[in-house]
Amino acid sequence: MFTSNNDVQDLLIFGHTIDAWLIYVLIFFGISSLAFVFVWLIGFLAESRSEKSIKQPWE
Question: Going by C-beta distance under 8 Å and a sequence separation of 6 or more, which residues neighbour residue 17?
Fold first, then answer.
């Protein structure tokens, strides 16, 4: 049975250790957050350069 963190030290998930998976998750979150900011900036620049004024959803 699982009794401490040392029990899962050598556990492999799809051939990779927990440390490797943590790095992969950090890279994924970093890339996805950069993509979100990039898409937001492009949308903001496109709306600010357009001739129409930005309307609120309730207008």
Answer: 10, 11
Distance between CA atoms of residues 46 and 39, nearest Å: 11
* Residues near 21 by beta carbon (within 8 Å), at least 6 away in sequence: 13
* d(C-alpha 2, C-alpha 40), whole Å: 45
Name the token pair of 42. Answer: 């492009």
- Alpha-carbon span 27 to 50, nearest angstrom: 35
- Name the DSSP letter for residue 40: H
DSSP, collapsed to helix, strand or coil, labels residue 18 as: helix
Residue-wise pLDDT for 23-49, tens only, equals 999 999 999 999 999 999 998 888 888
